[in-house]
Amino acid sequence: MGVAGKTTPQALLGEFPFTSTMSTDFFERQATAHRHTGRLVWLFCLAVIGIVAASWLVAFLAINYVEASNAAHERPNPPGLAMAPLYVAIASALLILLGTLYKIVELRGGGSVIAEQVGGRLLHHNTSKAAERRLLNVVEEMALASGVPVPPVYLLEGEESINAFAAGYSPSDAVIGVTRGTVEKLSRDQLQGVIAHEFSHILNGDMRLNIKLIGVLNGILLLGLIGAILFRTAALSGSGSSKKNGGAGLVLLLVALGVFILGYLGTFMGSLIKAAVSRQREFLADSSAVQFTRNPAGLADALKNIGAKLRGSLVKHPHAAEASHMFFAQGIQVGFTSLLATHPPLEQRIRAIDPGWDGKFPTTATSPATATATPVAATVAAAVPAAMGLVGEQQATAPAQPVADVAGGPGQVGNPTPDHHLYAAQLIRSLPDQLTAAAHEAYGARAVIYSLLLDKDPKIRERQLQTLDQHAAPDVVKLTHQLIPVVDALDVHTRLPLVDMTLPALRSMSTAQYRTFVSCFQELVAADEQLELFEWILHHILLRHLKPQFERVRPPQVVYYGLQRLGEPCSVLFSSLAHVGHTKDQAAIAFAAAKGVLDDVPLQLLDSSDCDLPQLQSALDQLAQVAIKQKERLINAAAACIAADQEVSVREAELLRAISDTLDCHMPPLLPGESIAPVAAAGSAQPVKTS
Amino acid sequence: MSAILITLLVIGGIILFLIILFINTYNRLVTLRNRFQNGFSQIEVQLKRRYDLIPNLIETAKGYMAHERETLEAVIQARNQAAGGLQTASANPGNPQAMQALSGAEQLLTGALGKFFALSEAYPDLKANQNMMQLSEEITTTENKVAFARQAYNDAVTSYNTYRQTFPPIAIAGMVGHGQNAELLDFDSEKIAEAPKVSFT
Hints:
The complex is a heterodimer. By secondary structure, chain A is mainly alpha-helical. Chain A has helices at residues 9-14, 26-73, 84-106, 111-117, 130-146, 180-185, 188-204, 206-236, 248-293, 296-307, 337-340, 346-353, 376-391, 418-430, 433-439, 442-452, 458-471, 474-488, 495-507, 511-526, 533-550, 567-579, 584-597, 613-623, 628-643, 650-662, and strands at residues 120-122, 153-156, 164-167, 175-179, 675-676, 688-689.
């Protein structure tokens, strides 16, 4: 019957090839992806060893031939001939290593490096073109709905085709690139489908895998290139025919030829592997996107538009081939279409989403090219009736209605749904215009952050404002004072999304401005020695997401596979959590709940005076380096701790989301009336209503 | 081991190293240039806003300052010239002629606006006008945003110039289209420091 009529995620996934065994559990998917990546890396290592061994063999055979030829003509062998195979093998290995390392180092600059290499231009919210603003709004809504910082958006100006990509090591340095054709030719629904697909790539960690693939393939390609160069040099200098040095030139020629063939063969095989992996990830991203929007029509229509002869998805830029597997649809023409294609055939993808499709592509322009600023409510509400047509069962509920069959919190990490999207769109609309305008520019975003960090206690606030006067420019201070009443009136559930919204603007500062800004807001935090945990975590999150733009930050590494050695950082974290808004007795109960989840970790409840903020900082830094399965346990324990007193305030729920963010697991906003339940609840923990 | 082979390998290694160095340096030059070009587009947005506000300002003031036609026209002329300079500059950010032209035009505009505001002090009715107050507030805010964006642009240009002038980039910069320093944008000049003369004839 197809996707229409299926509402559970598992059922949706079942329609897609290869993904029927994929879990709907984010943590499960991540763990599987890590395993697959590990296996892939091993595969490539074996391939490299194979190539090096083959180059040794080639050299060996060449030498045998030359020796035989020399013996036949009674010529002496050139000195050192016997050692040649070894040197060739070593040289090959070194070349591949060099090529791989170089590429990985180059790509360390993060997603924006890749975006600029394919000709992308950074978009800003104060752009004059309505179509670009619409794109930025869609990206912002989906980012907030997923609980991810809003990524910068790059526009590929010269590309008329319909295509998009996501790049970067982690959600902190992720960027989204979109072609001009996509912006102008797709309707809002279709655009949402495409962007949801890209967000799925970000959430599933496909980008990290992609970057590693590019790196390793580059090493093998380098070998082929060097072989080609050597071969051409040797052939041109005519050393093959020279008998003077006993055929050393001939050896060089043969070896160069062998290496050249090996290199290109290796690249070909590597491309096959890269393409196969990429196709699988594309299906997964399609299915996740459908889960996200629950509007299969949007994504299907976008794909059909690509299929229509008029548009297509081919990207012209010369560097597109390198990043081809990152694009939304097939970006470059390939000869062996099915094997080397980085994306599954369009028809297959469309049928997976829309089985009732008649196989015909639209021949005329079916989407509104005029993108007038449609109010979000209208378009988002329009998306639901469209889904109603296909799905047929869901009612267009107002976001305030509780979501009965889905538990919030840890179970939702990495799995945003249309309800989250509606919620995010409404949240953005509910913010005062002055605030959103400020948040979208680097100039005003600073003032927004300063006002978010101010304490409620008037004495501490006074001190903070004095510090601000000393360290910041007068016009920013003035703007901060203007924004204070606006920010004070905000509900606590808007604070974390507001930080996420300011991130793209803050990233466009210069390095000097960034340093001034950071020192300023750290002074603000320091002026308040009793800073609330939630405000402190907001500042921690901001720093974590800003740093990769301005400083060299190593991509996240997994160091700990178990939590046994991390008793101290865990104790600090959960003690801090337990003490938030609790009396001493309540704190003990809350801590015991966390301990119940992490029964194999040596936890000890610390006094609130013993967990200071620098300790918490180092604890969070350490815990960010644990394996994904342990992160799941940590988040469950945090949820249990917060829910222990049977009453979860919105503030506590946001605190849970913030902690989840520091672990690189992005939890969508908790919907009103939703309950918090740990992942794979053992049945002992009671789901609790958020108040 | 043949001396020829060893030499060949060593030379090959050096060439490889140089090629990689070349590619890295080129990429970094491109990245830094992109950064200041992005920075310029931010300035452009704010300047455009400023140029859009000025005609409204002058219209509002015309009703009250009918006799100050010279000053008012000077502002409009300076504004048009600056808008033209901006269009040229946005086609080629960092180009010395374009940047200097824009800086000059902006300085003239700031001077003209300064004279205008000084003059408007003598018209309390104008100062009390709601529209006027709102517009001058917005212009001040926009000028602050221009200053901030300009700071970011200048920082990015300085990074690019400094990198370009160091070794090894300086060796290849000329060959690959990065032969010129990018120009900073300087909107405050000593020339404006002289007090505007106000005549009440």
